[in-house]
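ARCHIVE ENTRY
Sequence with per-residue tokens
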Amino acid sequence: MDENYSKLRLKEISNRVKDISQLKDNFLCIYTTGSYGRHEASENSDIDLFFLDSNEHKFTCNIDKTLINAEVIKICRSMGFPEFSKDGGYLTIHNIGQIKDELGSPFDDYYNYFTARMLLLLESKPIYNDELHLSCLKQVIKPYYIDFHDHSQSFKPIFLTNDIIRFWKTLCLNYEHRRKRKPSEDPQEKIVTHSKNFKLQFSRKLTCFSFIFQLASSSGTINEKDILDIALMTPLERINQLKRDVSGIDNQVQKILDLYNWFLDRTQIPSEKMLEWLSDKNLRNVAFDKGREFGDELFNLLQTIDNQDILKKLLI
């Protein structure tokens, strides 16, 4: 994996996006998630973009939103990115005030605020308005710390941890829903489903649990600044940071890194090539065995480093 590839591509799109005139008239930040947000992208990777409006009183108007989307699509096409999924249906603007205020409400899931908030925290990198991206991160962290001042000597970020676990379980449930909603006899469609499962077992899982590892391994109180520092790291940076912060876990961490690098080697190829090797049942079984091994190693590491009794708090 060449981390510099992701950074260079993000720098290029950032330089182009900043010239969109309608962005200058609004209070927006744009961030990327997925493989680019994790700095794991290759030339075959698509790009996932989220838009956040920080003006809680005057939302970006629909005409400006349409023009911004059109320019972003032109830029991404000119850079050779694959077309946006769902016919660009995810190129919507969320408002930071609503993401904060609806935390835990029925609207949190209904309007996709939950996903936007979790991806912002877990694997986002700004491509427009870095300062606003940082401000939005601080704003979504704050609601998890409502009770901090009353328990500053013993505060544990269980509320945040539960939300991350809820996000992981939601990803799993969404996968099962898509898989069972329209059972297909089309072999190719089944292979696409296998590829989503494969990524769920590795990149999605590491995104969630690398953050939890940082929370669990910390000794003493974890404050908002600590959470911000964790959010600004990529999943792999969080795992590597554990080796520097916690003694005696080098071998465990290395097993996780080796398995994850194996996954990256097999996914940073053209999608048709990946689907081709996943169509081989024997190779697919090897892949899923590796996925189960990866999950076991993550759990073993969590048991080793759990200074905050995160496991106990999640179960009881």
Notes: The chain has 16 helices and four strands.
